[in-house]
Write a structure and sequence with these properties.
Blueprint (H helix, E strand, L loop, with lengths): L1 H9 L3 H11 L2 H15 L4 E2 L19 E5 L24 H14 L3 E2 L5 H5 L2 E5 L4 E2 L11 H15 L4 E5 L1 H4 L11 E5 L16 H11 L11 E2 L10
């Protein structure tokens, strides 16, 4: 397991590695690694695979970050979580929360629906897809809450807020919104909405228009906008009714 975590850290981009390395040596993170060793070594199923734990930091580079989308913890169903918040690998069934994200995207930007749930192309454009907790036990949401990941996430968000300019922070749901106070609103745009889960999407996620609002802000700040619609197909092929 130690070797796998070491390999996972090697996938972190050079600029992120410079920022995160001191954090990895702190006592809370050492304790977190011990916990993860026990969890991945047990007969429990833990997601994502160890090699993808730090995938959020494999793209973009720190200085390339433009948008931060903060999730809760990884998908807890089998072979779904891939290390990027809300994302799944090519060919995997699109989870309900991501379906709702794509519905809002389609309505906001008047596009079709992406035919893949893999959000790697967003990451490559400067979207940091980060969960507040980076690991989870199969079938047990929030099972790795309170073991150190939240402190790590706080550090990451503070680094972005303090050292970058003109980023867009998207906080979806009450748990993510607890982190909003970390962000300097005089330097960045903060967007908050309900979580895209089917349980809450109707309470303010649908209609939030975060995708178009983010691009307007980036354009106003003379930053490249995000091509959100990745690979789309006619939404009618999904057989879905839109909100």
């Amino acid at each position: 397991m130690a070797d796998l975590l070491s390999k996972a850290k090697q996938k972190i981009t050079p600029s992120w590695r410079d920022i995160l390395s001191p954090e990895f040596s702190k006592s809370y993170f050492t304790n977190l690694e011990k916990f993860l060793f026990e969890e991945y070594s047990s007969n429990k199923k833990i997601y994502p695979p160890p090699s993808n734990i730090f995938r959020s930091f494999s793209s973009p580079e720190f200085h390339e970050v433009k948008v931060i989308i903060l999730g809760q913890d990884p998908y807890h169903s089998e072979k779904t979580a891939n290390g990027l918040a809300f994302s799944v690998d090519e060919g995997k069934k699109i989870p309900p929360s991501l379906v709702n994200i794509f519905k809002e995207l389609s309505n906001d930007l008047n596009t079709g629906l992406p035919e893949s749930g893999c959000l790697e192309l967003w990451a490559q454009q400067g979207v940091l897809l980060l969960n507040t907790v980076l690991t989870v036990q199969s079938g047990v949401p929030e099972s790795h809450k309170g073991v150190g990941w939240e402190q790590f996430t706080l550090f990451v968000l503070k680094q972005i807020s303090d050292n970058l300019m003109n980023c867009v922070f998207m906080f979806w749901g009450a748990k993510a919104q607890r982190y909003a106070d970390l962000v300097d609103s005089t330097k960045h745009l903060i967007l908050s909405a309900a979580h895209p889960s089917p349980l809450s999407a109707h309470k303010g996620f649908f209609g939030c228009r975060h995708f178009s609002r983010a691009n307007r802000y980036l354009a106003d700040m003379n930053r490249d906008t995000i091509k959100w619609d990745i690979i789309c197909k006619d939404s009618r092929q999904y057989g879905m009714e839109f909100e």
